[in-house]
Design brief:
42 strands, 8-stranded antiparallel sheet, Jelly Rolls, 3 domains, mainly beta, Immunoglobulin-like, single chain
Length: about 625
């Protein structure tokens, strides 16, 4: 393709094609638009290519006399051309609406500047890219300002051409402070998580700035430009902006792994890739799982995990949690990274993991009581009444009930009883990682308070019931816990910490960690504070992981006696459990009858002068003497 045109005699010599017009032989379509001085210049090219990013681009090298920027620009009069660079000529020491805005391209998503030789460190620190502007009028410019402010990146809201303080985002840059000749590039994106500004210095990703509430830049038609603080030594040697259609996909994730599982979840870990290959940050993740192997061909047929975790910058180690899984199942997992243009990476490596099979123990206390029963170690003041447990002690003080015949609960959930009011919820709690199966066990207490919008606390239960607070803070669950509400604690023990994930009414509340690992026990239960008879527990559920069968125990029916051919009065009941005492379902038990020569036979009666012969079968052999005895058959 060749295009020719005739320049007016007074036209500045800064016309050029957009650099992105490459491999045009394989194009699917192109539109060429040339705008010259007096007809809007410089040249802009819009192309669609099957091999690269498509773009409409405006660029300016400022290689002309000036001082005016020319008809393609709007903005403050102080923004002029000097020594073939754009500079702010004002000595006013402020931002003061010093913005220059091209009027020939709308809705750019990539904006670049090159720092000129007129600039010093301070000038470059106070030179930035104005983005998502709602107008070309510098006095009404509403949008954002992005600056590489020395060692930091800053995102400001622009209002009437002036940045509002404090900054929306002020974070360390992942690139050094800019120098003369460096290129500052900002890529714009927007999704449900906010307006995003990916910042690059030359080819180095410097960081992502995000306004999660989208304060500005929400108009249908948007503009970009440059803002320079007054009274600085500054200069911009080159400016460009383009409206690109991104076709460069993120790189595939190659180190996906399963780091932990529960009865219904799996936590995956991997290293994030970028927006464009391994640069920047992707827009979202598509995580899939299946009970069969996942391939590129069947990826879309696998179940979607629906994770909402925001992708981090390329090279960052991230974790996501897949929920809604079935216990005791083996799963395959795969992930794709997707950019804001909808380009998806290739499928990741396949990770495999099995969820934990839990045996749930539920006690609803629907029995006469008043004691909790043989399975519980509880103080006598804990009594059942009307299907709920209360602490009848009139004295203030925490006491503990421990399920003594099961160990190693991974999840414990309580349902507050019908007598509970929001005010007394704080006098109840879940007891976990108890040191033993008695009421004097040490462990942890997780307690919920309906104060200040909700607060949850982690306590260390020490000897003699003394409580020491480990952590606490505002709940992420904003509802009111009351009668019929539930609180659940998931326990995870690692080599370095004990972790407690708390949820209320099925919604995540907060997570606690004890890096000191104060307790290592495995008994669980609940705690009630004395002096609060309406602080009750209506039900408790404990989930115990089912491990391999290791113990066979005869529960009942042993040592019974009956005549040959007669059924025993009771069945023989045997229980198979794991090492923690949890029943193992589905295990078969083989019974072998004891050989006759090992049977236990009762002692014969004492001698009384009579002869007794009993036999099931027998044979008589000679010599035999036959005699009569009148009492032989009457003994």
């Amino acid at each position: 393709m060749r295009a020719t045109w005739i320049l007016p005699s007074d036209a500045p010599a800064n016309h050029r094609f957009a650099r992105r017009l490459k491999h045009f032989g394989k194009r699917v379509g192109a539109i060429l638009s040339i705008f010259l001085a007096g007809f809007l210049f410089p040249a802009a090219v819009m192309a669609q290519s099957a091999e690269q990013t498509s773009a409409v681009e405006f660029a300016d090298t400022f290689n002309r006399t000036g001082p005016d920027l020319g008809p393609n620009w709007g903005g403050h009069d102080a923004m002029i051309i000097q020594n073939n660079q754009m500079v702010n000529s004002s000595v006013t020491d402020s931002w003061n609406g010093f913005v220059a805005i091209p009027n020939v391209l709308t809705n750019p998503n990539v904006i670049k500047i090159v720092y000129g030789s007129n600039s010093d460190n301070l000038g470059r620190t106070f030179t930035g890219i104005a983005a998502r502007l709602g107008s070309t009028n510098h006095k009404k410019a509403v949008g954002y300002l992005v600056v590489h402010n020395g060692a930091n990146l800053k995102l400001f809201e622009l209002l009437d051409g002036n940045p509002k303080t404090p900054a929306i985002v002020d974070q360390p840059a992942m690139a050094p402070a800019p120098n003369i000749g460096d290129t500052l590039r900002v890529e714009l994106a927007s999704d449900g998580n906010g307006h995003h500004f990916d910042v690059y210095l030359n080819s180095t990703f410097a960081g992502r700035l995000t306004d999660p509430v989208k304060r500005a830049g929400n108009e249908a038609t948007l503009y970009g430009g440059v803002q320079i603080h007054g009274n600085t030594n500054d200069g911009v040697d080159y400016f460009s902006m383009s409206a690109e259609a991104d076709i460069i996909a993120p790189a595939a994730i190659t180190n996906l792994s399963v780091v932990s599982t529960s009865s219904s979840t799996a936590t995956l870990e991997f290293t994030a890739t970028g927006d464009d290959n391994n640069t920047g940050a992707a827009a979202r993740y598509d995580v899939r799982y299946s009970n069969a192997n996942i391939t590129e061909a069947n990826f879309n047929n696998a179940s979607a995990a629906g994770v909402s975790d925001k992708p981090a910058a390329a090279g960052t180690v991230q974790r996501v949690t897949v929920t809604g899984l079935l216990g005791g199942k083996n799963y395959f997992f795969a992930i794709k990274a997707i950019d804001e243009g909808g380009n998806a990476s290739k499928i990741s490596n396949i990770a495999q993991g099995s969820t934990v099979l839990f045996a749930n123990v539920v006690d609803d206390f629907e029995r006469p009581g008043p004691g909790l029963g043989d399975n519980w170690a509880a103080p006598s003041t804990f009594q059942i009444a009307g299907g709920e447990v209360k602490n009848t002690s009139p004295v203030f003080g925490w006491q503990t009930a421990v399920l003594k015949n099961r160990r190693n609960a991974q999840e414990v959930m309580i349902k507050w009883g019908p007598s509970v009011t929001p005010e007394v919820v704080a006098h109840t709690g879940i007891f976990v990682m108890g040191s033993n199966g008695t009421t004097n066990a040490t462990g942890y207490l997780i307690q919920r308070e309906n104060v200040d919008g909700g607060r949850t606390n982690l306590w260390h239960v020490k000897q003699n019931g003394v409580l020491e607070q480990i952590g606490g803070g505002a709940s992420q669950f904003s509802g009111l816990a009351t009668a019929g509400s539930t609180m659940m604690v998931k326990i995870t023990v690692t080599d370095t910490e004990n972790i407690f994930e708390v949820s209320v009414d099925g919604q995540f509340d907060r997570e606690f960690s004890d890096p000191v690992k104060r307790e290592t026990g495995n008994f669980s239960g609940f705690m009630l504070n004395g002096g609060n008879p309406t602080a009750t527990i209506g039900e408790i559920t404990m989930a115990f992981p089912v491990k391999p069968a290791t113990i066979l125990r005869v529960e009942s029916g042993n040592n019974q006696i009956a005549s040959v051919g007669q059924p025993l009065n009771e069945p023989l009941v045997a229980i198979v459990t794991d090492e923690d005492g949890s029943p193992v379902p589905g295990e078969s038990i083989k019974f072998v009858a004891t050989p006759a020569d090992m049977a236990i036979i009762s002692s014969p009666p004492s001698p009384d002068g009579h002869i007794r012969i009993e036999a099931e079968t027998g044979s008589l052999q000679a010599p035999i003497t036959i005699q009569n005895d009148e009492t032989a058959g009457s003994g």
